[in-house]
Structures are given as C-alpha cells and as structure tokens.
Amino acid sequence: MMNDKLEQLQKYLEKMEQFNHVNTLLYWDMRTNTPKEGFAGHSDALTYFSTEQFSMSTSDELKTLLDTLAEPEEFEKLDDKWKFVVNKMKTDMDRNRRIPKEFYESFVKAQSESENAWEEAKEKADFSVFAPHLQKMIDMTAEMTGYTDPEKEVYDALLDQYEKGMDSATMDRLFEDLKAELIPLVQKVLAAKQPDDSKFHASFDKNAQKEVEKLLLSYIGFDWNRGTTGESAHPFTLNFSSKDVRVTNHFYEHDPLSAMYSAIHEGGHAIFEQNVNPDYDGTVAGSCSYMGIHESQSRFYENILGRNKNFWILLLLLLAGIVLGGFLGEATKSISLLSWLNFGQSFGLDTPLVLNLGVLVITFGLTIRITMASIIGVAIALLIYRFL
Predict the structure, then answer these.
(1) Which residue in 163, 213, 266, 273 is the catalytic one?
(2) Which of 35, 93, 101, 315 has the fewest CB atoms within 10 Å of its CB?
(3) Which long-range contacts (CB under 8 A, 24 or more apart) does 305-308 make?
(4) pLDDT at 373 over 80
(5) In the chain, what are the domain boundaries?
(6) What pLDDT is attached to residue 372?
(7) Contacting residues for 350 by C-beta, under 8 A, at least 6 apart
(8) In the chain, what is the greatest distance between 2 CA atoms, to the nearest angstrom?
(9) What local confidence, expressed as pLDDT, does residue 168 receive?
(10) Is the pLDDT confidence value at 289 over 90?
C-alpha cells in the first residue's frame, strides 16, 4: 500500500510538472519561432509561469510533505528513486526559500530580456547591445547566490549548482594538471602546417545542410519518435521528458562544418536525455545535476566519434551500399525471380541543393530509394567495414 504522504507528493509534483511543461514550451518557441514583436508577450508569460512554478516549489505545503517523508521512519519505506527525490527537493527547497519571490520574478524577466538582447547583438555584430544586459545578469546572479549560498563565494555556489560537490579549488588543481599536457599540444598543432579547408567555405544551401543534420542525427542514434529539431541563434538541447527531447542548430552559409558538428554535439546531449529511465520523468531524478556527465556525452559524440575517420568511413560505406543496392534493384526489376529486390521507398532533398562558387552556380537534387537490394548493400557495407 502506497504511503499517503508519498501519494500526496506525487500528485503535487504532477501539478508542478504542468507549469514546467508550459515554461519549456514557451522557451522553445521564444528561441526558435517567435517573431521579434512577439518576444515581450512571451517573456511576460514565461516570467509569470516560472514564478508560479517557483512558488509551488517553495510552498509550505510542499515543505511539510518533504519534511514528513524525510523523517527516518517514513524515509526507510521509500524506494531509491523517491529517496533521491525527497533528498534533492529538500536541499533545493532549503536554498530557494531564502530567495524573495519578487527578486526571483525580476531575475527571470531580466534573464529572458538578456537572451533576446544577445540574439540581437549577434545579428548586428554589436556587443554594446548586449553589454548592459550582461552586467545586469552578473549583478543579479551574485545577488541570487547571496540568498541561496551566503557562506560561499559566488563562483563556488554556481559550480555546485551545475556540478554537485565541485568548487574552484578543485577546478584549479584539475586545470593545472591539464595545462602541463594541453599547452604543449596546442603549440605543436599551431606550429604545424594547417590543412587547406577552403573547399568548406563555398556557399552551401541551408536546406541542404538541414538534410545533412537529419542524416547525422539518425546515424548516431537520435530517436525521431521522441525528438525533433529546430533552428536558433545558437544550438541547444532541451527536454520535456525522456519522450520529448529537442535540439536546435544554426546554419552558416559558408561554414557547413559548424552545423554538422553542432548536430553531432547536440545529438549527444539528446541521446543522453532520451535514455534516461522514463520512470524518472516528471521528477528531479529525471534531470542531471552533474553537467560534467552531460557535457561528456556530447563531447564524446562530437570529438571522439565525429572527428574519427572511421565515423565517416562507415557513413560513406553505408551510403554507398544504399546507392549501389538501389542500382541493383533497378537493374533487376524486370527479372521476375529478382524483382523483389526493387521493392522499397524513396526519400531525398525536399528542395534542390544550390552550390554558389562565385563564378559558377550549381543546382542539383538528390533522391535515394531504399530497396531490398539497398538493404543488402548496407549489410555488405557493414561486413566490409568490419574487416577493414
């Protein structure tokens, strides 16, 4: 039989989660789709719903529930998940109840306005647009940590929020160790002959880059049934739950590698979120409190996998298997015993790809037909890769 207080907590968290869902949706829309004149309205709505969620997360009702469940006799009845949830929420509440509601509301508002200003500054290449907002956020963040962690230095308080247990003294020791190896390595790389990457600075159609993004995300294992993509001023990943994880990208006409590696990087974040235990959805157990772990996943995909030649060799072999298999299927479609090889489905670029080389503009389309023959081609490609 479920603990009455635990059942009350679960119902309370379900209400809180509705506010979180609205806040996440508002933020997603602001960063990906809201017209400039609509920012103010969205910012006001985000401020309101965030403040209401904050009020619920620091209420006397929730405090009573958590205090009761944290009592030894009640705590021992909980499973590991709910022990973690109660401990984490109680710790967060003890800190956040020190924050005046009015200050929290003004902080969320200033944060929203500063992001809008940053996007404008980036578009205009004018730091002065963002400078006053940056200073305001620095000052307000320092004031915030004064409420939550008055005994800590500002930077230590922030480190502990994003990487539980971390402090600047530990970071200094880590960086000292890293410097001994990294500085000589960077100097060696900079002194070496740099590769010619001019071929990557022609004009690459944005829609074509989006198709490449989809290909790369699929290749590394992004689940499209539980995720989607958008476009923003700077790439990011957010999630409503393990069943709804979203990534964005930014596409530069003359730098396609930026979007390609951003896709792999954000895909790493997203795959991490998609593989969180769905039983943790709607609780603090579903949110990673250790950003070092989260960032390690994205950097692993981007740098360890994405910058390894085998990553691209396998991708090219798979594409070759699909294309050659398609030719085989087409060639055998009129042969009764082999016509089944041509059974399949077509997909490709929705719009033509335009390559502008200055003196020459090339426009072409690409459609790939996945057939039984191409699937066999993929299998053969995998075998070839295995023995390379």
Answers:
(1) 266
(2) 35
(3) 305/220, 305/264, 306/261, 306/264, 306/265
(4) no
(5) 4-170, 195-307, 311-387
(6) 62
(7) 207, 211
(8) 80
(9) 95
(10) no
Please give the order of strands across the beta sheet that includes 244-249. Answer: 227-231, 244-249, 237-241
User: From CA 285, how far away is CA 341, in angstroms rounded?
Assistant: 48
The token duo for 366 is: 């690409």
CB 66 within 8 A of CB 31: no
Measured on CA atoms in the order 323, 325, 326, 328, is the torsion positive or negative?
A: positive
Nearest to 8 by CA among 65, 54, 49: 65
**pLDDT per residue over 4-13, tens digit each?**
999 999 999 9
Task: Summarize pLDDT for 290-327 with one digit per residue, the tens.
Answer: 889 999 999 999 999 999 988 888 787 766 665 565 55
Whether this prediction's pTM lies above 0.85 is answered by no
Active site residue 266: yes
* Contact present, 295 and 304 (Cβ < 8 Å): no
Integer Cα distance of 141 and 154 in angstroms: 8
